[in-house]
Amino acid sequence: MATIGFIPHPNRPNAVNLAIATAAWVAAQGHQAPVFSDDEFTDVDAPNDWDPAQREMARGLDLAVSLGGDGTMLRVVDLVSPYGVPLLGVNVGHMGFLTEVCPEELPQALTQFLTGAYRIEERLTLAVEIRPKPGGGPVRTTTALNDAVLQRTSSGHTVRLAVSLNGTPFLTYTADSMIVTTPTGSTAYNLSARGPIASPRARVLVMTPVAAHMLFDRSLVLAEDEDITFEVMGDLRVELVVDGQSAACLTAGDVVHCRAGDHNARFIEFGGRDFHHVLKQKFGSPER
């Protein structure tokens, strides 16, 4: 008997209805199929807001099914990746870079999972540690699948960040923002900033400055065992955004440390999707 958890975007009725209907179908076959319902989300737009009961429920899953778009997937990764639970994404959203199947394909996908006809792709995650200046509060760590962005809080200003690589001072950047991305997140904000696209199977971190006010404005591609430290310089506030959600407002002396995450995200795949084909399809590029 398997335990398959369904986690829909709570503000999309079609996602919630699909979760409930599919969970009933799974339960009728003798498996456990909990649905994470609306009232179990304290704030759908807040990162890492899962309470202990939700995390305990996630610990016992054999499979997590995310129903929504890529944003829903990002939240579910945070919930289940510490426990090694594989994740199947159902695209009830728009772009769907991360999702594996569409709603009408879900029953067949679950049948394949239950019969073992699937594979798991491991994806690198990003650990983001917030270290406030002395007296500024406790150290906090959050996990990202896509990226961490240090950005200006008002137009007409820049961020000034002293960057160290592997503990060694590198450069002080003045820019509109600074992105640290995983390969999975390289097709998000990093792509808009003309950063490199990395295969999701790669084990690298990419640092991309956005509109740098300096001659050196190129992206850096770092190995997974390398790390990046940012110290906020100057009088202007800096917002830290992790996977699209505000994580902290930083001032001079605050530090953000980025490194490869302790746990991989584990995605269920059935062999029908190719990253390079999806990339062309999402951007409307013609076949040769």
Measured by DSSP, the beta-strand proportion falls in 25-35%
Uncertain spans? 38-47
The pLDDT mean sits at 89
Q: What is the CATH C-level name of the largest domain?
A: Alpha Beta
- Annotation field: number of helices: 6
- Mass-distribution shape: globular
Evaluate the radius of gyration: 20 Å
List keywords for this structure.
single chain, 288 residues, Tumour Suppressor Smad4, six-stranded antiparallel beta sheet, 6 helices, 33% strand, globular
Describe what you observe in this structure.
The protein has 288 residues and is an alpha+beta fold. It has two domains: 140 residues, Rossmann fold; 135 residues, Probable inorganic polyphosphate/atp-NAD kinase, domain 2 (Tumour Suppressor Smad4, Sandwich), CATH 2.60.200. The protein contains six helices and 17 strands. The longest helix has 16 residues.
Question: Quick gist of this model?
Answer:
By secondary structure, the chain is an alpha+beta fold. Helix content is 19%, strand content 33%. It starts with a strand and ends in a 6-residue tail after the last helix.
Topology of this structure?
Elements: E1 4-8, H1 13-28, H2 52-59, E2 63-68, H3 70-80, E3 87-91, H4 106-114, E4 119-123, E5 126-131, E6 140-144, E7 147-152, E8 159-165, E9 168-175, E10 177-181, H5 189-192, E11 204-210, E12 220-223, E13 228-232, E14 238-242, E15 245-250, E16 255-260, E17 265-269, H6 275-282
Parallel strand pairs: 1-2, 2-3
Antiparallel strand pairs: 4-17, 5-6, 5-16, 7-10, 7-14, 8-9, 8-13, 10-11, 11-12, 13-16, 14-15
